[in-house]
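Case study B.
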Amino acid sequence: MARSSTAAPIADTIPVPRKIPVALIVNGEETALNVAPWTTLLDALRDHLGLTGTKKGCDHGQCGACTVLVDGRRINSCLTLAVMHDGAKVTTIEGLATDGALHPLQQAFIDHDAFQCGYCTPGQICSAAGLIAEGKAKSADDIRELMSGNICRCGAYPHIVAAIQQAMGRS
Amino acid sequence: MINFQYARASDVADAVRQIAADPTAKFIAGGTNLIDLMKEDVERPSRLIDISRLPLNAIEETAEGGLRIGALVPNSDLAYHPLIEQHYPMLASAILAGASAQLRNMASTGGNLLQRTRCYYFYDIATPCNKRVPGSGCSAIKGLNRIHAILGASEYCIATHPSDMCVALAALDAKVHVAGPAGERVIAFADFHRLPGDTPQFDTNLQPNEIVTAVELPPQGFAANYTYLKIRDRLSYAFALVSVAAALELEGDMIKEARLALGGVAHKPWRDTAAEAALRGQAATETAFVHAADLLLRDARGYEHNSFKIGLAHRGIVRALAQAAQGTPQSQSNKKIQ
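Model:
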């Protein structure tokens, strides 16, 4: 979309940068990419690696649909650059199941009908995996608070909390 | 987002060299605010200098009995660090009141200090904004200003500083360690952020060629009597309309030392030493709390949509001081205000 701006047209004076090699270990597989500096980790996953399970919602860190685990920690993949994560281990929704068996969180989301449209679900599940690994949530209040970075516009929140409680009980 | 170059800094000296050599470059660490602003074309750096791998991620005890927090310590690691939870729980509480778990995992300590206002007009490049384009005017003063400042604003800018963590750091009397071409210096927290005046494009007194290396906490952490009370439009993951960091050192019922800082009300975390002085030596009663709130808000001024914040801040101060005095800090999970 064209926009007016009073800021200096810096971009016109900058040479187009070369693509930068980035090695990522995505869902256990070593991958080698060449990306422009401005490629977000989200776009690298979706557009370069074809892993479209991670969703682009707001693209501004406000909705959590892009949540993935980087070196075991949940982050918003839309607000970080792929080039900053050379050597990192990235886990997406595609990497949670093992040997064809659903991850306990995936099964719990099915058991509790914890979604309607499903668009936020990969981010919800990756975020919940991070929450369980952090080990700070002790109550439903804690789960609600620590999952507040994941928006569900269908309003499946009560079932999402129940699903996470089920998975916490098993892990 | 515009075209930009990317480079890594190999150490702090290299980072300073690179930023000094290119006035259109910016550091990137967690990136949570900068990348968002770049996507909006508000920030247009020609070069990003990646400092995220520099060895500035330690939390160490100082010789004075305080703590030195590396500038790259993620917000979540800081909030959950045993020494912070035990000795500086007000800081932990303030951090956990802000952002989301994902953002706290990404955002750095130094970056939290340097995050920019969430004024709608600052974010919207189609509108005038003196902070974004000096001299273009302030759209908020006569526009939608529900979230804007009630203290210390100017005719040029009525934006607020968005941080929760910084409100606790202001109350705790932290210091900011920075490095630049001339060496290192230490900035008192109260002097780190600035009021807008006629140059709202400058959020802080950090020089363009300097880098934040650490935040230092003095020994006194007010672990027994503190609270961080954050009031916002939804219960989580929203910026403060008003937040209050309150900390007391009590001798029996008497206030020996008091700290009081507000977020969401000014261009910087608003600590008022006059209100603190008025509490010192007084009994910890509602009368004293109301007097402190009166004092802190003596020069408060509302605009068309945010005058409610003055009353909200007054009640928030009184409630926060009561929570601190009772030793019943605000929970950041169960949001019921006791």
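The longest helix of chain B spans residues 308-326. The remaining cases will be described in the next quarterly update.
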